Amino acid sequence: MSTKKDILNLLKHEILNLTLKPGTILSETVLSERFQISRTPLRDVLKQLSIESYIDVYPKKGNLVSYVDLESVEQIIYLRSVLEKDIIKGLSGSLTLKGIMELKKNLEEQKNAIYQEHALEHFLMLDDTFHRTLFILAGHEFLWKLIKFSNVHYERYRRLHMLKQEKLEKILNEHHMILDCMTNHETDKVDELVQHHLREDINSLYLLENFADYIRA
């Protein structure tokens, strides 16, 4: 029998990686049978998923995996953009050799991941590690954790935009440019670079043309 925490984390993972697609009905009966758990603790799990916006509860339809909320995505992008511009500027000229080596190692791993069989999963993890490292080096790991806690819509938006290899290559190139800005003290380039890196896709028609069923109306 799985614990409530195990079930919660597994369902979160399946929602974030789109195994459970937006709009999917989460039947209490099916989940109870799947996890061999009674309805009462299962409802606690579903309540927590609802609180964290992983699912929406509708009186007549039941529990549905939440649709990607582009307004929420916009808010997270804005927050990250403001913070990361300041962080990268602050690290420019003060980045330690250890920090540079850590970031370069991560970029080399990103390059190798792009051409692996399951490139997306590994690359997403390394992409997160790159940005988390910037927050840690700047002494703002707590802010990174706050962002990740409110990330259910942005994570799925990001995943859908990273399904093609050329997109991963473009992101890697921009990561190299971010590191170059810091090591070369080119703070004048930071605003435009971060703005493009985080916001390029927000006004793209790609999601509406390919995944309209996943988007909150």
TrEMBL record:
<dbReference type="InterPro" id="IPR036390">
    <property type="entry name" value="WH_DNA-bd_sf"/>
</dbReference>
<dbReference type="Pfam" id="PF00392">
    <property type="entry name" value="GntR"/>
</dbReference>
<feature type="domain" description="HTH gntR-type">
    <location>
        <begin position="1"/>
        <end position="68"/>
    </location>
</feature>
<dbReference type="InterPro" id="IPR008920">
    <property type="entry name" value="TF_FadR/GntR_C"/>
</dbReference>
<dbReference type="InterPro" id="IPR011711">
    <property type="entry name" value="GntR_C"/>
</dbReference>
<dbReference type="Pfam" id="PF07729">
    <property type="entry name" value="FCD"/>
</dbReference>
<keyword id="KW-0238">DNA-binding</keyword>
<dbReference type="InterPro" id="IPR000524">
    <property type="entry name" value="Tscrpt_reg_HTH_GntR"/>
</dbReference>
<keyword id="KW-0804">Transcription</keyword>
<dbReference type="InterPro" id="IPR036388">
    <property type="entry name" value="WH-like_DNA-bd_sf"/>
</dbReference>
<protein>
    <submittedName>
        <fullName>HTH-type transcriptional repressor RspR</fullName>
    </submittedName>
</protein>
<keyword id="KW-0805">Transcription regulation</keyword>
